[in-house]
């Protein structure tokens, strides 16, 4: 770091004035002088951990802390001046306890991680610097009793803008609980503190940093309840390898962060970014954030952790209640599935002849699945009451001489996020339309489209953010913005007789008016639609869908500068092989207000994946009377 080599001259210089020495006493001033000399002799060469403790990042004109709560700093200039903050921090450690305001903690206790590091570097003489008792901190550490840490990834939840990309948090594993009792450990979570429940406002404010983000400590089972049960999100747990001293440093820093906040940015200073910061505090050699430029996405957090040799000891899959029930349904034959459906409707009970005639194994499977179903719907009410399972169902299950299926390996309804393709994508293609050939270049920072391999992602949804596509037309020798998908979300919820959820999609984009010959002119458009999708079973290679959309387009190349209408689209995705996916779709577009027009569009897209991060795609598109074909390579990183 630029100021590290001069640390000796900067540590204590502000506290050498006679006024300072008088206010703190000659003994204190003398000892500060000795510490200054010691620091000069050591010539501390690496103050990286100081940057981590204060969470600094390099700016164009110096250093600016990412912490936005001023209680995090000892110096009024601490946010932008690390030298003055270091000096003020060291001086604060000499503050007599009598000078601390009632109800406040001594700086040695408030900034325990900084005190630990500076003590290690400068070897404070405990006979000359009074070491304070930190009762609250000690009780907190004794409660946590850390013996390990686990990085937890909660899978995607499309009904909440904050959770569409997944979520990461830390679990503090305790020696008090031991193996197999992780639910009663504690978790550490960083999240925005929103002031709105409006999804659109949440997204906008999250993009511009209008929410404060805070760390919180909580019993881990509360997050399992929220993610695993209420939201039916699978959890992937990555047990980390840290020494006892590294865990101690990380938790002391987490203690420091409890009193401050950060401006929450959806793609930058989010849950994943700050979780990486905590891991770097534990082991500064990891340098986990160095590889990120524009965005830090939860899946990237897991991937970068997995890429560190020896950091992840093991991975555990914790399926949601819904995944547990669907696993049981997969093991049922068609007759059992029909009986379960009748039980849900109330047409069949444990006393019904059709149920009593089943083998005990089938009865146990059905009752277990039915209880999962009841638990799921009870959780949807987000009630603190017990799960509403009728006593008759519990009695019927208890009479069966069949063991539970706790030891049965559960099918993974989500795949490990660290095995997915990169979230950034670069595309290069060559194509031809009705008039001329062209080259196509595209880049997007996030996230996943339905034509990409879905290992590590939700197989029924796509999120595309800031996808810019340029074309160079070879004959007219001009470059044009072909498309800019500012945000495009599609959630295909395949029809399920037990859980009927509509499919939906929304898009904001700049696009070329492809149904008219206006020399590649652009329009700004917005789309929102609802639909139905169908997959024969969860792992079927075929997915059918249909949508009805509302559309609005604005351009000075349109009559009256706009057109409003909609479309009806039907389509399918089919995985011919593990690496070959085909999409076929057709739609009828109708615009009734502004410029009136009706026309058909059709699309045939094939994708062949050479690897998780590289694929080849062939597209044949028709817009009204205009045709085009594109062959492109897509590289994910």
Automatic annotation (TrEMBL):
Start and end residues of each Lnb N-terminal periplasmic domain: 138-305
Signal sequence segment: 1-21
Transmembrane segments: none
Ranges of residues in domain DUF7843: 43-120
Domain DUF7840: 415-631
Pfam family name, one: DUF7843
Keywords per UniProt: Signal
Protein name: Uncharacterized protein
Entry-linked InterPro entries: DUF7840, DUF7843, Lnb_N
Entry annotated with the keyword Ion transport: no
KW Nucleotide-binding (keyword) present: no
Annotated coiled-coil segments of the chain: none
């Amino acid at each position: 770091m630029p100021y590290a080599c001069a640390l000796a001259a900067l540590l204590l210089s502000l506290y050498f004035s006679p006024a300072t020495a008088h206010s703190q006493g000659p003994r204190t001033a003398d000892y500060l002088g000795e510490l200054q000399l010691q620091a000069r002799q050591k010539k501390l060469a690496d103050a990286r951990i100081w940057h981590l403790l204060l969470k600094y990042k390099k700016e164009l004109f110096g250093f600016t802390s990412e912490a936005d709560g001023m209680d995090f700093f000892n110096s009024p200039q601490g946010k932008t001046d690390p030298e003055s903050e270091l000096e003020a921090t060291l001086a604060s450690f000499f503050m007599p306890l009598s000078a601390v305001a009632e109800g406040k903690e001594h700086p040695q206790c408030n900034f325990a991680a900084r005190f630990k590091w500076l003590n290690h570097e400068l070897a404070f003489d405990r006979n000359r610097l009074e070491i304070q008792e930190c009762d609250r901190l000690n009780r907190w550490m004794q409660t946590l009793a850390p013996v390990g840490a686990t990085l937890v990834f909660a899978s995607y939840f499309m009904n909440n803008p904050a959770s569409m990309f997944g979520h990461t948090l830390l679990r503090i594993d305790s020696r008090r609980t031991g193996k197999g009792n992780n639910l009663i450990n504690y978790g550490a979570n960083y999240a925005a503190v929103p002031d709105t429940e409006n999804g659109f406002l949440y997204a906008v404010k999250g993009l511009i940093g209008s929410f404060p983000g805070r760390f919180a400590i909580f019993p881990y089972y509360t997050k399992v309840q929220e993610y695993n049960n209420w939201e039916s999100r699978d959890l992937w747990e990555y047990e980390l390898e840290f020494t006892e001293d590294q865990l101690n440093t990380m938790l002391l820093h987490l203690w420091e962060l409890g009193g401050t906040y950060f401006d929450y940015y959806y793609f930058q200073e989010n849950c994943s970014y700050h979780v990486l910061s905590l891991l770097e505090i534990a082991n500064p050699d990891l340098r986990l954030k160095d590889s990120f430029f524009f965005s830090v996405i939860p899946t990237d957090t897991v991937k970068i952790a997995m890429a560190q040799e020896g950091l992840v000891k093991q991975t555990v899959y914790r399926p949601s209640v819904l995944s547990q029930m669907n696993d049981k349904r997969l093991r049922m034959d068609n007759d059992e599935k029909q009986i379960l459906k009748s039980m849900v409707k109330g047409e069949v009970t444990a006393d019904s002849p059709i149920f009593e005639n089943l083998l005990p194994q089938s009865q146990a499977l059905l009752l277990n699945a039915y209880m999962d179903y009841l638990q799921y719907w009870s959780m949807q009410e987000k009630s603190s009451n017990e799960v509403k399972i009728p006593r008759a169902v519990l009695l019927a299950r208890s009479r069966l001489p069949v063991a539970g299926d706790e030891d049965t390996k559960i099918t993974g309804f989500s795949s490990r996020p660290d095995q997915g393709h990169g979230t950034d994508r670069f595309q290069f293609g060559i194509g031809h339309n009705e008039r001329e050939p062209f080259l196509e270049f595209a880049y997007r920072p996030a996230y996943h489209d339905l034509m990409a391999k879905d290992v590590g992602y939700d197989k029924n949804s796509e999120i595309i953010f800031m996808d810019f596509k340029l074309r160079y037309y070879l004959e007219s020798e001009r470059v044009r913005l072909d498309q800019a998908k500012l945000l495009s979300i599609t959630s295909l919820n395949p029809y399920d007789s037990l859980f009927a959820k509509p499919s939906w999609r929304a898009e904001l984009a700049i696009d070329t008016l492809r149904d008219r010959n206006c020399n590649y002119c652009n329009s700004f458009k917005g789309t929102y639609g609802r639909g139905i999708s169908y997959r024969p079973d969860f792992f079927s290679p075929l997915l059918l869908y249909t949508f009805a959309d509302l559309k609005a387009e604005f351009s000075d190349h349109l009559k009256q500068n706009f057109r409003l209408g909609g479309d009806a689209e039907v389509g399918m995705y089919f995985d011919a092989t593990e690496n070959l996916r085909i999409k076929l779709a057709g739609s009828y577009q109708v615009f009734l207000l502004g410029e009136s027009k009706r026309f058909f569009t059709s699309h045939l897209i094939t994708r062949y994946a050479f690897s998780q991060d590289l694929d080849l795609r062939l597209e044949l598109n028709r817009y009204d009377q205009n045709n085009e074909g594109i062959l492109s390579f897509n590289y994910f990183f």
